[in-house]
Amino acid sequence: MIRLFLLWSLLTTLTFSFGMDTEVVYQENTRYRIEGRIPKFVDKDNSARELSDALRLVNREIQGNFTEIKREVISSALEFGEEFPNSNLLPFTLKSTYVFPGNSKLPLASFLIETIYYTGGAHPIKIYKGYTVDTYTYYSLDTFFKSPEEARKYMVERIEERIEENLKNSQLGREEKIYFDNARVDLDDAAFYFRDNKFVFLFQSYAIAPYSSGNPEFTFTFSELREFLHNKWTGI
What we know:
Blueprint: E1 2-6, E2 18-28, E3 32-43, H1 53-83, E4 92-99, E5 109-118, E6 125-133, H2 148-171, E7 190-195, E8 198-203, E9 217-221
Protein backbone atom coordinates (compact mmCIF):
# COMPACT_ATOMS: atom_id res chain seq x y z
CA MET A 1 0.00 0.00 0.00
CA ILE A 2 1.14 3.52 -0.72
CA ARG A 3 0.20 6.36 1.63
CA LEU A 4 -0.04 9.81 0.07
CA PHE A 5 -0.37 12.88 2.29
CA LEU A 6 -2.46 15.70 0.83
CA LEU A 7 -2.09 19.13 2.40
CA TRP A 8 -5.46 20.51 3.38
CA SER A 9 -4.61 23.86 1.80
CA LEU A 10 -4.82 22.17 -1.59
CA LEU A 11 -8.40 21.14 -0.91
CA THR A 12 -9.93 24.25 0.63
CA THR A 13 -9.09 27.84 1.44
CA LEU A 14 -10.49 27.37 4.95
CA THR A 15 -8.31 26.54 7.97
CA PHE A 16 -9.19 23.33 9.78
CA SER A 17 -7.30 21.50 12.49
CA PHE A 18 -7.08 18.40 10.32
CA GLY A 19 -5.82 17.25 6.95
CA MET A 20 -6.27 14.20 4.79
CA ASP A 21 -4.28 11.09 4.04
CA THR A 22 -5.03 8.80 1.08
CA GLU A 23 -4.59 5.06 1.23
CA VAL A 24 -4.07 3.61 -2.23
CA VAL A 25 -5.14 -0.02 -2.63
CA TYR A 26 -4.38 -2.16 -5.67
CA GLN A 27 -4.94 -5.91 -5.98
CA GLU A 28 -5.10 -7.77 -9.28
CA ASN A 29 -5.17 -11.32 -10.56
CA THR A 30 -7.02 -13.20 -13.30
CA ARG A 31 -10.31 -13.14 -11.37
CA TYR A 32 -10.53 -9.66 -9.87
CA ARG A 33 -8.98 -6.20 -9.93
CA ILE A 34 -9.33 -3.84 -6.98
CA GLU A 35 -8.37 -0.16 -7.18
CA GLY A 36 -9.09 2.20 -4.32
CA ARG A 37 -8.14 5.70 -3.22
CA ILE A 38 -9.47 5.72 0.34
CA PRO A 39 -9.55 9.10 2.13
CA LYS A 40 -8.68 9.26 5.82
CA PHE A 41 -8.80 12.35 8.00
CA VAL A 42 -5.67 12.98 10.05
CA ASP A 43 -4.51 15.69 12.42
CA LYS A 44 -1.77 18.16 11.52
CA ASP A 45 0.89 15.67 12.60
CA ASN A 46 -0.39 13.24 9.94
CA SER A 47 -1.92 10.85 12.45
CA ALA A 48 -5.42 10.18 13.73
CA ARG A 49 -4.63 10.56 17.44
CA GLU A 50 -6.14 13.98 18.06
CA LEU A 51 -9.16 13.81 15.76
CA SER A 52 -12.66 14.51 17.03
CA ASP A 53 -15.13 11.67 17.49
CA ALA A 54 -17.01 12.89 14.40
CA LEU A 55 -13.98 12.58 12.11
CA ARG A 56 -13.05 9.22 13.60
CA LEU A 57 -16.58 8.04 12.81
CA VAL A 58 -16.24 9.19 9.19
CA ASN A 59 -12.92 7.38 8.87
CA ARG A 60 -14.42 4.14 10.20
CA GLU A 61 -17.47 4.42 7.95
CA ILE A 62 -15.47 5.06 4.78
CA GLN A 63 -13.01 2.25 5.49
CA GLY A 64 -15.79 -0.12 6.50
CA ASN A 65 -17.84 0.55 3.36
CA PHE A 66 -14.85 -0.05 1.10
CA THR A 67 -13.80 -3.19 2.96
CA GLU A 68 -17.32 -4.63 2.76
CA ILE A 69 -17.77 -4.13 -0.97
CA LYS A 70 -14.21 -5.31 -1.66
CA ARG A 71 -14.99 -8.52 0.22
CA GLU A 72 -18.19 -8.99 -1.80
CA VAL A 73 -16.46 -8.44 -5.15
CA ILE A 74 -13.58 -10.81 -4.34
CA SER A 75 -15.94 -13.48 -3.00
CA SER A 76 -18.16 -13.23 -6.09
CA ALA A 77 -15.15 -13.34 -8.43
CA LEU A 78 -13.66 -16.43 -6.78
CA GLU A 79 -16.98 -18.25 -6.73
CA PHE A 80 -17.74 -17.37 -10.37
CA GLY A 81 -14.20 -18.25 -11.41
CA GLU A 82 -14.48 -21.71 -9.91
CA GLU A 83 -17.64 -22.38 -11.92
CA PHE A 84 -16.66 -20.56 -15.15
CA PRO A 85 -12.83 -20.32 -15.21
CA ASN A 86 -12.65 -19.33 -18.88
CA SER A 87 -15.45 -16.76 -18.87
CA ASN A 88 -14.80 -13.47 -20.66
CA LEU A 89 -16.69 -11.72 -17.84
CA LEU A 90 -13.64 -12.05 -15.61
CA PRO A 91 -11.97 -10.24 -13.97
CA PHE A 92 -14.59 -8.68 -11.71
CA THR A 93 -13.58 -5.14 -10.83
CA LEU A 94 -13.90 -2.55 -8.09
CA LYS A 95 -12.74 1.05 -8.34
CA SER A 96 -13.29 3.64 -5.62
CA THR A 97 -12.12 7.24 -5.48
CA TYR A 98 -13.15 10.62 -4.06
CA VAL A 99 -13.49 14.22 -5.23
CA PHE A 100 -13.52 17.53 -3.38
CA PRO A 101 -15.64 20.16 -5.18
CA GLY A 102 -15.20 23.89 -4.57
CA ASN A 103 -17.04 25.46 -1.62
CA SER A 104 -15.51 28.89 -1.17
CA LYS A 105 -18.11 30.30 1.23
CA LEU A 106 -18.88 27.30 3.38
CA PRO A 107 -17.16 26.77 6.77
CA LEU A 108 -17.06 23.04 6.19
CA ALA A 109 -15.58 20.43 3.90
CA SER A 110 -17.75 18.37 1.57
CA PHE A 111 -16.69 15.56 -0.75
CA LEU A 112 -18.09 12.73 -2.83
CA ILE A 113 -16.98 9.11 -2.94
CA GLU A 114 -17.58 7.25 -6.21
CA THR A 115 -17.53 3.46 -6.16
CA ILE A 116 -17.85 1.50 -9.40
CA TYR A 117 -17.94 -2.27 -9.41
CA TYR A 118 -18.61 -5.02 -11.92
CA THR A 119 -19.60 -8.57 -10.99
CA GLY A 120 -21.03 -9.71 -14.33
CA GLY A 121 -24.08 -8.50 -16.21
CA ALA A 122 -24.65 -5.80 -18.79
CA HIS A 123 -22.73 -2.99 -17.12
CA PRO A 124 -20.93 -1.88 -13.94
CA ILE A 125 -22.81 -0.55 -10.91
CA LYS A 126 -22.07 2.94 -9.60
CA ILE A 127 -22.62 3.98 -5.99
CA TYR A 128 -22.16 7.51 -4.67
CA LYS A 129 -21.85 8.68 -1.08
CA GLY A 130 -21.46 12.27 0.08
CA TYR A 131 -19.72 13.44 3.25
CA THR A 132 -19.83 16.87 4.86
CA VAL A 133 -17.76 17.67 7.94
CA ASP A 134 -16.02 20.30 9.96
CA THR A 135 -13.55 19.77 12.80
CA TYR A 136 -16.15 18.50 15.25
CA THR A 137 -19.26 17.64 13.24
CA TYR A 138 -20.32 14.99 10.73
CA TYR A 139 -23.30 16.63 9.02
CA SER A 140 -26.37 14.85 7.79
CA LEU A 141 -28.86 16.61 5.53
CA ASP A 142 -31.33 17.14 8.37
CA THR A 143 -28.84 18.96 10.63
CA PHE A 144 -29.06 22.06 8.42
CA PHE A 145 -32.79 22.58 8.92
CA LYS A 146 -35.09 23.80 11.66
CA SER A 147 -37.82 21.57 10.28
CA PRO A 148 -36.22 18.73 8.30
CA GLU A 149 -39.58 17.24 7.31
CA GLU A 150 -40.79 20.50 5.77
CA ALA A 151 -37.47 21.06 4.01
CA ARG A 152 -37.47 17.55 2.58
CA LYS A 153 -41.08 17.92 1.44
CA TYR A 154 -40.23 21.17 -0.37
CA MET A 155 -37.18 19.69 -2.11
CA VAL A 156 -39.01 16.51 -3.14
CA GLU A 157 -41.83 18.57 -4.64
CA ARG A 158 -39.40 20.74 -6.61
CA ILE A 159 -37.55 17.69 -7.94
CA GLU A 160 -40.82 16.01 -8.91
CA GLU A 161 -41.81 19.17 -10.79
CA ARG A 162 -38.58 19.02 -12.80
CA ILE A 163 -39.15 15.35 -13.56
CA GLU A 164 -42.72 16.00 -14.66
CA GLU A 165 -41.56 18.84 -16.89
CA ASN A 166 -39.03 16.57 -18.57
CA LEU A 167 -41.61 13.84 -19.13
CA LYS A 168 -44.06 16.32 -20.69
CA ASN A 169 -41.37 17.80 -22.93
CA SER A 170 -40.28 14.33 -24.03
CA GLN A 171 -43.86 13.49 -25.03
CA LEU A 172 -43.91 16.65 -27.16
CA GLY A 173 -40.54 15.81 -28.70
CA ARG A 174 -38.84 18.86 -27.17
CA GLU A 175 -36.17 16.95 -25.27
CA GLU A 176 -35.01 13.43 -24.56
CA LYS A 177 -36.83 11.47 -21.88
CA ILE A 178 -34.63 11.02 -18.82
CA TYR A 179 -36.74 9.64 -15.98
CA PHE A 180 -38.98 6.68 -15.28
CA ASP A 181 -42.68 7.40 -15.87
CA ASN A 182 -43.45 6.34 -12.30
CA ALA A 183 -40.35 7.87 -10.71
CA ARG A 184 -40.70 8.14 -6.93
CA VAL A 185 -38.38 10.69 -5.33
CA ASP A 186 -36.76 9.74 -2.03
CA LEU A 187 -33.84 11.94 -0.97
CA ASP A 188 -32.32 8.97 0.83
CA ASP A 189 -31.78 7.41 -2.61
CA ALA A 190 -29.32 10.20 -3.41
CA ALA A 191 -25.81 11.14 -2.33
CA PHE A 192 -25.99 14.50 -0.55
CA TYR A 193 -23.03 16.89 -0.60
CA PHE A 194 -22.14 20.50 -1.44
CA ARG A 195 -20.67 21.89 -4.65
CA ASP A 196 -20.32 25.56 -5.59
CA ASN A 197 -22.10 26.50 -2.34
CA LYS A 198 -25.22 24.55 -3.31
CA PHE A 199 -26.99 21.53 -1.87
CA VAL A 200 -26.46 18.69 -4.34
CA PHE A 201 -28.48 15.47 -4.62
CA LEU A 202 -26.91 12.90 -6.93
CA PHE A 203 -29.31 9.99 -7.38
CA GLN A 204 -28.16 6.40 -7.50
CA SER A 205 -28.55 4.27 -10.61
CA TYR A 206 -32.15 3.12 -11.19
CA ALA A 207 -33.54 5.23 -8.31
CA ILE A 208 -35.53 7.54 -10.61
CA ALA A 209 -34.09 6.88 -14.06
CA PRO A 210 -32.76 4.05 -16.24
CA TYR A 211 -29.04 3.32 -16.40
CA SER A 212 -28.79 5.03 -19.79
CA SER A 213 -29.73 8.35 -18.15
CA GLY A 214 -26.75 8.22 -15.83
CA ASN A 215 -27.10 9.57 -12.30
CA PRO A 216 -29.55 12.50 -12.28
CA GLU A 217 -28.50 15.46 -10.17
CA PHE A 218 -30.50 18.28 -8.59
CA THR A 219 -29.22 21.37 -6.79
CA PHE A 220 -30.67 23.93 -4.39
CA THR A 221 -29.15 27.23 -3.29
CA PHE A 222 -29.06 28.35 0.33
CA SER A 223 -31.29 31.27 -0.66
CA GLU A 224 -33.91 28.92 -2.05
CA LEU A 225 -33.98 26.98 1.23
CA ARG A 226 -33.56 29.95 3.58
CA GLU A 227 -36.95 29.63 5.31
CA PHE A 228 -36.05 26.09 6.43
CA LEU A 229 -32.43 26.69 7.49
CA HIS A 230 -31.04 27.13 10.97
CA ASN A 231 -30.03 30.75 11.50
CA LYS A 232 -26.27 30.11 11.21
CA TRP A 233 -26.76 29.10 7.55
CA THR A 234 -29.18 31.80 6.37
CA GLY A 235 -26.46 34.31 5.48
CA ILE A 236 -24.80 32.14 2.83
